[in-house]
Amino acid sequence: MTTQTQDMQAREKQEVNGTSESTMSGRTFSPQVDIFEDDHALTIVADMPGVPSDNVSIDLKEDVLALVGTPSLSIPEKEEVVLKEFESGKYFRQFRLSEVVDQANIKAHLDNGVLRVTLPKIGPAKPRKVPITEG
Amino acid sequence: MLIRRVDSWPLEHELSGFTEFDRFRRDLGLLLNGRQSQFRREEPPAGVFPLLHVTHDHDNFYVRSEVPGMTLDKLDVSVTGRTVSISGERTIPSENEHVRYHRQEREAGKFRRQFNLPSDVDSDHVQAKYRHGMLMVVLPKSESAKPRKIMINS
Q: Tell me, what CATH number does A113's domain have?
């Protein structure tokens, strides 16, 4: 039997236990990410299922990039649980950037629960909040 | 190695969907735990994707699942009787060949999950919605499966 693609397996969500997000309430999970770069930009792709674009914040301070996503899902109280295999909670992950990026041109895009942040290389380092587009 | 308990009631997984190794893990899980399953299991069974959150109220079952980054043509939901099947293929578009990966944690591949709900559903009126990477399926209970209030005569 040959299959071209590998079968997917569920991975347990990794919960974040740290001091840096003590201001957030509820459980916090670390999203799975792909990080890659070419000569022009560094790109981070993160899986954040259940998160609408309004609920994502991307902050770059000094050389630390922080991604936070809050899912919009809430289970109505009248529903009774039959089976619960995953927990919902905020997504949080931060990265230390090894290169200076062009902060004015950081682009972020959220599509079906996948956040893609593109950080063009070279530029001065100033704190800046990044707006999100959805599509 | 973490061995999860993998018994299967009330949501039964299709055995044929398991590889030999998954079956082995499943058997081992049963052996190690040596007891019958509980109703509200929190631990997901080994080797399955996607994970499910199933709830119900008087009229419907609700199945929610986290499947980020799917396209609708690659996501299928089908229902027969009380059996729900969710299948699809997640593809991660390849980047240009000049990129260097520092981290690659996101997975791509085919998946199929089949499970039984505790009672029959009206398969003609099932609705599925995919939004923000979450799949939500609403399955109306069949009339015979709904709780009925019985008048008690004195």
A: 2.60.40.790
